[in-house]
Amino acid sequence: MAGQDGIEVVGSVVSGQKALEFVQTTPPDVVTLDVEMPAMNGLKTLRAIQRVNATRSPAAAIGVIMVSAHTKRGAEVTMQALRDGAFDFVAKPRGPNSDENREQLRQQLVTRLHQFLLSRKRAAGRQPAAEPPATPRGPLDSSGRRRQWHPGASRRPVRALLIAASTGGPKALETLLPGLCERTDVLI
User: Fold this and answer.
1) Using CA atoms in the order 34, 104, 172, 24, what is the torsion angle rounded to 10 degrees?
2) Range 110-118 average pLDDT
3) What is the pTM of this model?
């Protein structure tokens, strides 16, 4: 990571407890955590960092990227880390060439770091949603022109629930779905 434009490594520690101490005294933009660490594992450290984030503005939240041989897409530990607030995960490469593995890990981390910083920048600049248009726009007809929609016109209710989830999706769904299940007009 050192020498990568726009990225400065501000510290390196050997345990979850030391990581938490560092975060509290010198908050970085992003922390990478291994799942297996001495004294306090990565998931416990992640939860502690999220408690620190609860006292900070969203624009100053510390991102966490899990880096581990255990963090694979779909693995329970990965899902738990995402539910607990990790921004993303990177699986340690396991190829036979350690130099290639290190380069692959560096590239993945750089990508995730830039994605986190971009998402935080977007979140910080988000404005309240604009007012919806006074007249909803109708669907397109077969010629590609918009059909007119008239208030009070008979329309069949849409019975669909569409959810797109990416990084952070498990946590968002955990928050969203219980509220939807309480509504009688939404089917899951």
Assistant:
1) 40
2) 87
3) 0.65
